[in-house]
Amino acid sequence: MAAQEGMSAPAPGHRVFPAFPPVALSAEAAPFTPMAGDGWRPDSSPEAEKQFSRCAAKLRALRADSGQLREELNLLFDQLLSENYNKTVDPSINIQPEDVCSLLRHVSSLVPLTQEHLVIKLCQLVHRLLNQLKVIMDQQTLDVLVTYTASALKVCSTWTHSDVLLALSTAVYGNGAQCHRHLGDLLGEDGVLLQYSSLSQPNMELRRVALTCMTNICLRCFKSCCQAPGLSVDWPAVLYPAPLPQYEGLSAAKPAEPPKSSEPPKDTANKKKKSKGKGKKTKTEESRGDDGEEEDRETVPALQRGGVREGETSTKISASFLYPSWKRNSSDSEFSDPEGNAQSKLRLNHARVRQGALHCLLAVVKAVERRTLYGYWSSFIPDSPVGGPPPLTLLTIVLKDPSPKVRLCALQVLCAMLDGSRQFLAMAEDTASPRTSYTPFSFTLATAVRELHRSLSLALLAETSPQTLTQVIKCLAYLVANAPYHRLRPGLLTQLWKHIRPYVRHRDVNVRVSVMTFYGALVTTQAPLPEVQLLLRQPDDSGSSSTPQDSGLSWRQRDGMSSPSRTPSQRSSCTQSPRVPRTPQEGDGGQMWLLQLCVSLVTQPREDQSDSEGAGGGTALEPSPVRLEALQVLSHLVRGYFSLTKVYLCEIGQVSARCLGESDPSLQLHGAKLLEEFGTGIIQQYRAENNVPETSRVPLKQVVQFWSEVLSGPLNGALQNEQHPTLQASACDTLSSILPQAFAQLPDKTQMMCITVLLGLTYIENYLVKTAAVRALGIYVLFPCLREDVMFVADTANTVLAALDDRSTNVRAKAAWSLGNLTDTLIVNMENIGVDFQEEFSDMLLLKMLQAATRAAADKDRVKSNAVRALGNLLHFLRESQMTRSAFQRPLEDAVRALVKTVQSEATMKVRWNACYALGNAFRNPALPLGKYSAPWSHDAFAALCHVVTSCKNFKVRIKSAAALAVPAHRGCYGDTKRFSCVWQSLATALENSEDTNDFLEYRYSASLRHTLSHALLHLLSVSQLQDMTALRESLDGEEGSSIREHLIKCLRAEEGPVHLMVASRCGSKPTPTTWTSTGPHGGLQTGPTSSATPRLVGLRTLPSLGSAGLLSVGV
């Protein structure tokens, strides 16, 4: 057969081929064809035919025993592969197919399988010639090429197989019927193609090419190819009708017979009566029952089964357009029993085909990258309301497919597409006024989100299959969790809020669980969202809640529910489950209906049990999944809308206590997490940076009472429950969420209990418990009422040091974090209490902390980031008397060198900027030897910071290093003139290059970097001495220093009022104050009153500044 070109992907290692125009996907489209091995080159040589003739003649003259066979073949193959034989480039090319076949047969006999490079070139030549020349091979050539390539797959190395499979794919394209003698080797039980296309094949490229090869073999002869290896093939003559009748409109409907369609209740009764009289099911009915099609029939509304009733309005007729014609207008009396069975079987097969296709699409959606998937978004999700002849999208299937299983599969695909789509949907926006000239992509995407809301709301109202209804609600939850409602016009969530409420009472437990999942997504998306705040504040209106439901009843009703005035609450009594007892009503005095609902689902029994899980008695609670989801919704409410939930302090405490007293560990766990969320919300209110007015906070007295009741309740049992470590860990997190001000007012025995329990749990072997306990101690050590207790600080330090040696990385990471907090406490106590606390704190314990932090600085980045923070605090905390002791000198040097190494390392940027900050923190210690007679490590510290401030790609690291270089308070800390000049020059160079970066994301920090660098340079000017002026003048002089001068003057102008920076120049032993100003008639570097002991400023150089702010002068 002729090998057509244009569709298969290139083999690995080949150059990129040009893209071909897209081809419409239809039954009449051209079959799959391997693409040409070479791209289209407009400058292809017209001598291609002559080159082929010359090379073919030379190849025919070669024999297997030729002396230079390998070299000749290699050269001739390269010449043939260098030409383009595509007739679209040069229509005059006229190479005869028999010449190509003769050449390929002869060359195949010359290239041994041991010469793998020649085998590769031969396969490429086969692909090139057959594809571009569209050669129709004879049987002999086909047998030779298939045999050769199949042998190469068995003999040659794996790296050659991609090209070999590509050549085989080209050779067998459309020639499956002529390959019958080879099908056993290719497609048999041990066939090479089955091996390469197997799921166990790790090389995806080989698997893809093998599948392409199998596709080309099966073209036009699939049945014969399957029968040749011994496979039995049997399927209906008509597998899938075209066009798709299940999605057609009224024009494709078969007219129903008026006498039979006018009395659907009678037909229904006859059906039931007939089914009772049958002794056993037919074979067709059994297969339908196994696959769930009997359920399909039961879930199809009567309007679909009986056609349009006489006298119904045109509105109902247009609504029935949404359903397939064979479902609307067919009845049992239209077919004889054999015909009916055949039709049912055909419909069942059709549904299975659609279901399988959707399963395949689901696998594709999960496998491809998100960027690729979003390119096909509009093919599956419409961006305008479905009207007229509907396009075939996922929403079309969800709304109109007669099979619940098919609808379920379509919803699963839609969920997979929506899951993780937040970044893509974040571009949607329709709050601005619409443009008339063009439609921006953001508006199109917003329209697609609104269409998703509309279609899924219709599906929610219409769906009667519990399994599919569950998936509809889950799909809505995915949509709500990912859509950017703060960029969309309000109202979408309000409609969903009204539509979803009746399903809280659904008879199926999975539906109720999915409803609570939806509510959880609703209160977490972009919380706090103004529209959701309004929904939570105002009580629901039962009338408005049922209005959209009633509108849906006109086109999807069940038998016995023909009255459109029946509300969902009334309908639930016959089609769903009875109402949940004591469910809070909409008019309950402004209470949060959702919160009250969750509380009732967790704590109150169901009076009328219709589920199997509640069949034991009238006091049975909701099933555990419903209660767990309700607790999660409560946690989400507290986290996102604490200002609304804070008034329910007592209710939430009672719910948590109730859950902690349950026997189910899952309920206990969620109860503890709810307490933690509420405690965290209170802490956030009391933080000064959040600026929450005192009148809006939960009163401290109530907080103390709340925690007193919690700590005297069942939380202690959870802390001691060694059978469930996860519960113990969550209880530790709950203890860590106590407000510090409230902890100080708890009874002493309660405080001691919390501390003792946490210290004891750090010795539990389970890493989850140990991690949570160490973290809680790291929080407690910051409490004002505990941080001044030297004994508690020492006990916490010993516990944290032991955890730093744990084998679990998680434990070590939290221990390093807690050690960083503990050292923060040391600094606070040193500043507030003074030397007394430093002297009271054990020197040996401080030495152990310094050594442990140094070791942790060489751990993984998760540990290292906080270990270097602790090192900076410890170096700041050390006293001079300690640093002069021999026991501290070596650990001190190791600690500084660990910081220097971390600054210069290739660790994560967070670790590096923490190390820079730690060095700056250490420089704050006036006892640290940094001056002229400093230790060698001080030079390394300054050198590392100077290197990072000029060369690091991350601007935040540069900012921290520049800030660290500006920490030393005295000129002597910078060492000699050479080191001072190096620091100055590094900062000046960094300021000049503060906008040079290849990463666009770093530009947002460029202004902050320039500000920090300018302040650092001004600080150096303020501490500079006379001997430093030469280096400063060289840096600020001329055009090269103009940008630095501009930045410095701009920084000075930003200060409030005149700025005077004192520069002390020492001559002998008497310092002379020198003022550097930016204002005044003689702004610049000026000296005080001259005297015989003060040298005159010679060579005063005045440099122009900006505007009328004065002069920036440097005197030397």
Automatic annotation (TrEMBL):
Residues 271-281 have a biased composition (Basic residues). Transmembrane segments: none annotated. Residues 562-579 have a biased composition (Low complexity). Residues 250-313, 537-589, 1070-1095 are annotated as: Disordered. Residues 352-532 form the DUF4042 domain. InterPro entries: ARM-like, ARM-type_fold, DUF4042, HEAT6. Residues 541-554, 1071-1080 have a biased composition (Polar residues). This is HEAT repeat-containing protein 6. The lineage of its organism: Eukaryota, Metazoa, Chordata, Craniata, Vertebrata.
